[in-house]
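Posting for a labmate who doesn't have an account.
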Amino acid sequence: MTVNINPVPRTDVQSRLSVMDVDWRELTRAANAEFNAGRHIAAKDTYDLALSTSRRLLDLAAKGGPGVETAPPRFVVSTLNAVRNARAAGLQDLMQDLLASAADVFIDQLSAKQPMSGFGEACAVHLPVLMRGYLNEIREAGLDEARYQDQFERARENALKYLTKSSIMH
C-alpha cells in the first residue's frame, strides 16, 4: 500500500522543477568531484549538463513558473563552475564565451519590457554576483579587463534601470 505523505498536489511544472533541481545538484556534485580530481575534460561535460539544467530552471522561472528565487543563483553557480573549469583546462575562449553568454542572459531578462517582478529582482540581485565572478576569472586568467568594460557597463546600466523602475512601481 502506497501512502501519499505529501497532501498538497503537485503540478506537472512543480514536479519537473523538482526533478531538474535534483538533477542539477547531482550534476554539480559529480562535476565538482571530477574538477577536484583534476579531470577537467570530464568535468567540462558534466558542468555543461549542469549549466544546461540551470538554464532550463531559469527559463521556467522567467515564464512565471516556480524557482524564481533559486534559479538565478543556480545559474550563477553553474556558470562560474564551468568557467573555473575552463580556465583550469586552459580553454580561455570557452571561458570568455561562457561569461559573456551568462551576463547576456541576465541583461536580457532585466531589459525585457515586463520581467516577472520577483524573477527580475532575483536577476538584478545575482547579476552583480555573476559580474564579480566574471571579473575575478578574467583577472585569474591574466586577461585584459578593459576588453570587457563594455559588458560590465551594460550589466550595470540594466541592473540599475531595472531596480529604479522596480522601486518606482512599488
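Reply:
Got it, the C-alpha cells are right above this. The chain has a mean pLDDT of 83.
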